[in-house]
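Hi R.,

Quick one: here's the Electron transfer flavoprotein subunit alpha sequence you asked about.
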Amino acid sequence: MNTLKRIEPRRPFTITAQGLRRITLGEMGVAVSPEMAAHSATHREQAKPRRTTSAPQRVMLVAAHADRGALDEHARQTLAGAALIADAATEVVLVVFGEFGGDAAALGADKLIELPMFDRRAFAPEGELNALAACVAAYAPAHIFMPDNATGDGDLGRRYAAAANASVATHVVEIDSAHVAAYVQSNTAFAARALPEVVLLAPNAVDPKLPFVGAGERVMWRFDGESAASVGKVRDLGIEEIDAAQLALEEADFIVSAGNGVSDVPAFERLAATLGAAIGASRVAVDDGKFTRDKQIGATGKTVEASVYIAFGISGAVQHLQGIKDCRHVIAVNLDASAPIAKRANLTVIADAQETIAALNEAAAAARTARGTGAALLNSKVAAEGALA
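And here's the predicted structure, written out as tokens:
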């Protein structure tokens, strides 16, 4: 029976290698001495140990869709969650729908089953359900973990639980080896229950950084996914391409964002259209009237989860950094190498934002011209060969 406990609904949790950590909003990091920092850096450089080397007696299975050959942050968190609560006699098996080129061992998996016949852009719920059921039948896992998202994993997890009549917990924000918990009653209460057969984990509930590695063994899996996907009542109608500028920032996978360093807004918008990216802006750029309020990214604006986020002329105030904390790859273009956003960025280009935008527009125009010239020459050659024939 579920137990309810009144809580502060906005209090976040993170499951780490040290256990459950409750984060106090506004709490700053603890300062450390140079000696402690050096010791920590040396410890990080050491090779991580294997989580377990004993013969497995039970299995935990993690299933997720790949995105361009890799697992996204949410999927990596889910895999880490399963690895953190697994004991020495438990094997963690990762099932990836789609092509996967990452390091499964570094993510905590002991075995990897890759199903490249399933593309995340294609909708094949029955084929994926059959594949997952086949993996479950082969390994008989004690628990199945999946990211609770809107891009296939959450739907597949619910379909499997319904088909297998399995116990399931959704939107899980707290987990250990004995229980799971989630917000209920419009986030005004907290419900806990014993660890179910299917766990759908909410985003940002687990720290994906692990102090160990898994075995990372690749398992050759034969599954006729194409024929399985073609049978049934579900038919994939494809994906309708839309203008990236019309896409909500919360749903955008590629965002270019402008700050105070961008003066030529039309040139910036041309670049966004060329790259097929959604447009965002800092609060300063919005307050200056360069962009509408719905383009604002930050604590007082939108929180985004793009795979690629390019910031032009944005210094990176703490409010803006909160809005991009879940972005996978951040590229900053700024004249100030010591700007706060440079610490968050995966790549920082020390250059004038406006000059960089102009150079990228020129490079794109040159590429289009070259491509058009090449196509014209090819068409002329084909026409001439046809005339000679």
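Residues 6-11, 23-45, 226-230, 380-389 have pLDDT under 50 and may be disordered.

Cheers,
M.
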